[in-house]
Amino acid sequence: MSSSFQRWTVTEPYLDLHCALGEGPYYEEATNRLRFVDIIKKHLHTVDLSIGPKSLKTLQLDMPVGVTADIEGIDSKKKILIGGKSGMYILDRETGKYELLKRFFDSEEKDERLRSNDGAIDPQGRFWVGTMNDFWVGEPQAEGSLFRFNSDLSRKILRSSLTIPNSIGWSRDHKMLYFTHSTEKRIIAFDFDGSTGDISNERVFWQHDGNGDPDGFKMDAEGNIWQAIYGESRVLKISPQGKVIGEITYPTKCITCPVFVGTELWVTTADDHDKTKPYAGAIFKVDVGVGGLKDFKFKLEKDIPGL
């Protein structure tokens, strides 16, 4: 490895929360709050970073939520978009109630075996989200898909027969879409047409050769991908050329998803069922000297009562 390879070591958590499956961290810049989910425990957690860990608030939901996003023109302190059990919903953060905007499939029966996993909003305000088998199914089968929900609530399946679809992100010039398929241990790249939302020219951008599986990622302002590796206690910094140029190591094994807060990279983690090691399911942060690309908001064309 070259001498320019960067290394960071994190030893202590910011919040030792014992999430079963912490995921979907999202930084609310306007209020300096961090929100994230626990998919297994069906929690939405929020922390005011100006106050610290003692400000943690937890909303108990009755379905697994894999990802959250803001909606353009809507106060995110009150309502946000979520990828949930059967599709895309609007969650009222004050009451915990939610409203289904659009199902993944038109039949309840087809949705029953599935739940949402990771997702993101594209530069034009469309919601991309992957589905996978719900926990009760057991070992995930190749029944997942990658969906795109448009602003008019129409939907399209871009890829099917996926097992554990994960993070989605766009290059700085918005001409490429990156997508992690955990079970294939790879980041896949596509050419992205912003005007239509279509993807083409599928190719392998980066292939992992370790024992762990690539989970969530975030893009930084320089075009690098910060890829969490579930099962290997680390996040890898991957250049736009697909080379690993940095590594953050953590004191717990199952790193799930990162998010940028200024120049700090925060991560969620999951329970690794190893009782000899602390901090499984905790939240960690480290300053990596670069910021992230901004998150886009979902553009909703249809009038929804109560919004």
TrEMBL record:
<protein>
    <recommendedName>
        <fullName>SMP-30/Gluconolactonase/LRE-like region domain-containing protein</fullName>
    </recommendedName>
</protein>
<dbReference type="GO" id="GO:0004341">
    <property type="term" value="F:gluconolactonase activity"/>
</dbReference>
<feature type="active site" description="Proton donor/acceptor">
    <location>
        <position position="215"/>
    </location>
</feature>
<keyword id="KW-0479">Metal-binding</keyword>
<feature type="binding site">
    <location>
        <position position="115"/>
    </location>
    <ligand>
        <name>substrate</name>
    </ligand>
</feature>
<feature type="binding site">
    <location>
        <position position="215"/>
    </location>
    <ligand>
        <name>a divalent metal cation</name>
    </ligand>
</feature>
<feature type="binding site">
    <location>
        <position position="23"/>
    </location>
    <ligand>
        <name>a divalent metal cation</name>
    </ligand>
</feature>
<dbReference type="InterPro" id="IPR011042">
    <property type="entry name" value="6-blade_b-propeller_TolB-like"/>
</dbReference>
<dbReference type="Pfam" id="PF08450">
    <property type="entry name" value="SGL"/>
</dbReference>
<feature type="domain" description="SMP-30/Gluconolactonase/LRE-like region">
    <location>
        <begin position="21"/>
        <end position="270"/>
    </location>
</feature>
<feature type="binding site">
    <location>
        <position position="117"/>
    </location>
    <ligand>
        <name>substrate</name>
    </ligand>
</feature>
<dbReference type="InterPro" id="IPR013658">
    <property type="entry name" value="SGL"/>
</dbReference>
<dbReference type="GO" id="GO:0005509">
    <property type="term" value="F:calcium ion binding"/>
</dbReference>
<feature type="binding site">
    <location>
        <position position="166"/>
    </location>
    <ligand>
        <name>a divalent metal cation</name>
    </ligand>
</feature>
<keyword id="KW-0862">Zinc</keyword>
<dbReference type="InterPro" id="IPR005511">
    <property type="entry name" value="SMP-30"/>
</dbReference>
<comment type="similarity">
    <text>Belongs to the SMP-30/CGR1 family.</text>
</comment>
